[in-house]
Amino acid sequence: MSMQGPITLLLIGITALVSWMAFNNRALADRLILWPPAIDRHKQYDRLVTYGFLHADFAHLLFNMITLFFFGRMIETLMLKITGHWWVYLLFYLSALVVSILPSYLKNQKNPNYLSLGASGAVSAVLFAFILVSPWSLIFVFFIPAPAILYGVFYVGYSIWMDKKGGDRINHSAHLAGAAFGVLFMLCMEPRVLQVFLGQLMNPRFG
User: Which residues contact 7 (CB under 8 A, 6 or more apart)?
Assistant: First the structure.
């Protein structure tokens, strides 16, 4: 019996290991975190990906990895079924890290005080890819069941509001960019997903 979602499990393992190592190694964290001057001046473009393998603390890491565990394996399996290639999901996840952070990076390109870390942008891409293919599935938000599509609407609205408000040190624009990328990637990979989504949307079926 083959293991479900091996790439997802590998990403979780690497992220957990790197984050844990960086908790106790300031030099490692400083080298991997998204810091615009390092990209702008020193051409360390790898930071557009490596920042996603760092987390601020254990709770931040746990929340992202639990979300990735539950939704990533399903999306990985679906992408493999549609394309026949295991690397499509890996490309999706890594490119989601880059795309989700680009708006923040470009906005803060000359800001030496700006730092960003965490897999939230890529996890948002995975989550919204799931919402697109299964909008009425019940997902648990702080142990409260909610239809995926309603959670998605709330998530986008809240992220837009908090992005404008600011002040909580969470990169809400990365969440939004990641969510948009997740939807667009799925539609480009398999345009018929849109027809399936609209059909499901018109026929609510919870669970």
Answer: 76, 86, 89, 90, 93
Please give the structure tokens belonging to residue 95: 């490119």
Helix ranges restricted to H, the chain: 6-23, 26-32, 36-42, 47-50, 58-83, 87-107, 120-133, 148-165, 172-189, 192-201
According to DSSP, residue 84 is labeled S
Pick left, alpha or beta for residue 171 (phi over 0 → left; psi -120 to 50 → alpha; otherwise beta). beta
Place of tokens 């079926």: 205
What whole-number distance in Å separates Cα of residue 88 and Cα of residue 110?
33
At 109 the three-state DSSP class reads coil
| Under 8 Å between Cβ of 112 and 37 | yes
Amino acid letter, residue 23: F
Q: How far is CA 21 from CA 17, 29, 34, in A?
A: 6, 9, 17
Residue from 168, 164, 3, 172 nearest 76 by CA:
3
> What is the pTM assigned to this prediction?
0.92
pLDDT digit string, tens, across residues 83-141:
999 999 999 999 999 999 999 999 999 899 999 999 999 999 999 999 999 999 988 77
As a whole number of angstroms, the distance between CA 83 and CA 161 comes to: 36
Cα 135 from Cα 205, distance rounded (Å)? 9
